[in-house]
Every structure is written in C-alpha cells, then in structure tokens.
Amino acid sequence: MTSRFLNKNLAGGALLDIGVYAISLARYFMSIKPKQILSQIRFAESGVDERAEMATIALTLHKRAVIAFEKGYIEIMEYPRADEEKIVYTSSGTIETIVAGKRSDALQYEMEDMEEAIISRKKDMLLTNTLDVMDIMTEIRHRWGMYYDSEKNL
C-alpha cells in the first residue's frame, strides 16, 4: 500500500497512471471527442482505482494495448514504452512484427519530439485531443466520486 501506484495523493490508480495513454490512443482514432462515456470501477483498499474499464478500453496497471480492426488486430506490449508491436491478420493467422527504437530510450524520444515541436513551432501536436483526454478523465473521476483535495473547494 506504500507504492505510488496505490497512493491517491500521488495521483495513483489505473486511470491516471496508464489510463491517459489508453484514452489518448483511442482518441487518436476518433474524429471527434465521444459524447457519451461509460465506465466501470474497482477500487483498491487505498481508495485509488485498481481497475477501470471504459467502452472498449480496459485499463489495468499492466501496459498492453490491443487495437482491433475488421481483418486483424495490433498488439503492443509495454505500451506506451514499447519497442515492438505485432500485427495479427486473423483471416490468415499471419503475424507481422515491427521493431522500432529501444524501450529504454523512450523518455529521450519524447523529450526530443517536444523540443523539436517547440523549436519549429509545430502545430500538429494534437492539443485538442490532449484537452479532450483531460476532460474525459476528469468526467470519469467525478462520476466515480473521486476528487482531489484541490477540487473540493471549486
């Protein structure tokens, strides 16, 4: 119970730790922010969300992303710090593995991307998607009755 992942005061729990990545991934494939959000919650003894499920997104502290399509799916282990993904074609059973970068350098890649975006004043950083994800996560937490001390006085 002393882990950061289980500490509400340190923004622990499935939604805020790994949920941001899962919701961002799903939002990336949507043309607009969803109008209706449904979720289920299982609280840990410490009061954080141990497991959250939303629509077709299942969140746990195990970092795995599966994106399903009509003719197959993409599986990414250790998401969002993956260095490989598998594309599974369900009709033929063929599996294609794509390897890129090194998991241990993921934070460095993120910093380089952010630095490049700032220097070049790149406009394609998907700010709207980021704001949508923040709104979705706040809406979900509030429906669960999960508020931070700083929100209680608003």
UniProtKB/TrEMBL annotation:
Residues 3-95 form the GFO/IDH/MocA-like oxidoreductase domain. Keywords: Membrane, Oxidoreductase, Transmembrane, Transmembrane helix. This is Dehydrogenase. It comes from Selenobaculum gibii. The lineage of its organism: Bacteria, Bacillati, Bacillota, Negativicutes, Selenomonadales. PANTHER family: OXIDOREDUCTASES, TRANS-1,2-DIHYDROBENZENE-1,2-DIOL DEHYDROGENASE. InterPro entries: Gfo/Idh/MocA_domain, GFO_IDH_MocA-like_dom. It comes from the Bacteria. GO terms for molecular function: oxidoreductase activity. It holds the Pfam family GFO_IDH_MocA_C3. The chain crosses the membrane at residues 12-30.
